[in-house]
Amino acid sequence: MLSKTPSEIYAWAGCNKEEGIMRVFNNAVCATVAALVMFAVIGFAADKMDKIDKAEVPSAVLSAFAKDYPMATVSEYWKMEENGMTVYKIKATDNMKTMDAVYNMSGSLVKTMEEMPMDMLPTEVQTAVKSKYPDETVKMSEKVMMGNETQYEVELMKMDNATHKVMFDTMGNVVSDKAMEGMKMEKKKW
Q1: N or C: which end of the chain has fewer CB within 10 A?
Q2: Inter-residue contact 137 to 187 (CB < 8 Å)
Q3: Does domain 47-111 have CATH number 3.10.450.360?
């Protein structure tokens, strides 16, 4: 067990109290930013998506889904390439909620997405959408969970009907904003 005082630790590190606090703060900020970037890259970018039949889904994925969501009703199966990794998305309804569960080929859960009305998202996210995208229409919003990280994806439509997906952290900060190439939709409010 260490029995050093904070002053002794600062002296050992070659800094004063304020510098020591700033070093700890900067390290915490860097770790948080790195985690958010990793979540955005892994959790947001599908390189390729193909709708598939149940027979094309690996048995490990089907078994894992059945164990994780025994009462769910499946509507679609998708095979996707995300950052060079093949994953399988299962669209389903569970406990009256529309959700997607994404698994790797061996049946390990990668992430889940649960559709949520905009007014059920954290107040910070709602405020950020209204202030940063005041002239855009919300098409869809969902809670995205990957490991112990939670973020919120909001699909927005611009005045020219072009759509984009914006990922927010729980504090309403924009993590990523991805245009949906070639996607123009009929304008419809929630």
Answers
A1: N
A2: yes
A3: yes
Half-sphere exposure of 10 (CA within 13 A, CB side): 13
Judge contact between 190 and 118, C-beta under 8 A. Answer: yes
- Helix or strand holding residue 121 (H, E): none
- Residue 186 burial (C-beta neighbours within 10 Å; 0-12, 13-18, 19+): exposed
Render pLDDT for 168-190 as a digit per residue (tens, 0 to 9).
999 999 999 998 764 443 333 33
Write the CA distances from 162 to 98, 159, 165, 185, integer angstroms. 24, 7, 11, 7
Place of tokens 């889940």: 112
Question: In angstroms, rounded to a whole number, what is the distance separating the alpha carbons of residues 37 and 57?
Answer: 29
**What H or E segment, with its residue span, contains residue 107?**
none
Q: What is the Cα–Cα distance from 112 to 124, expressed in whole angstroms?
A: 21
DSSP symbol at 133: S
Can you give the length of the chain in residues? 190
Average confidence (pLDDT) over 160-175: 95
